[in-house]
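[User] Could I get a sequence and structure tokens?

[Assistant]
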Amino acid sequence: MEAHVPKKPSDEVLTYIDKVLTVLPEEGLVLSRNGQKLGSVSPDDGRTRIGILGRTFMRHHIIWYAFHKKWPEHMLDHEDRNKGNDKIGNLRYTNSSLNGLNRDPKPPKRPKRVPRSPWKTRPWNRPQKLNR
């Protein structure tokens, strides 16, 4: 089994998602019965998680299920690299290799330290100016 493949929830959880929750795939939101936004953002990875019947699920998996009526069988990727943007148009199937390519480029390496002139760091070694 490939890493990061979402484990399919029980039929009871899927029925709860269908009948109790309001899922808005175009907005990337999951709402409770009384219209409150559900989910909490993890400080570790920035993804939003939602607790349902004692289990925790990622919001983008719930949105994928609500739109496609099928739990994702592969890793999902956020096309714009924003893990908080769970709109259905921003989600796509991927694998580990392709998901790794969809990252922000690494910042450029800092240039190596240029050595300073020895008399700037040790003024007592500075050549003396002659008054003429």
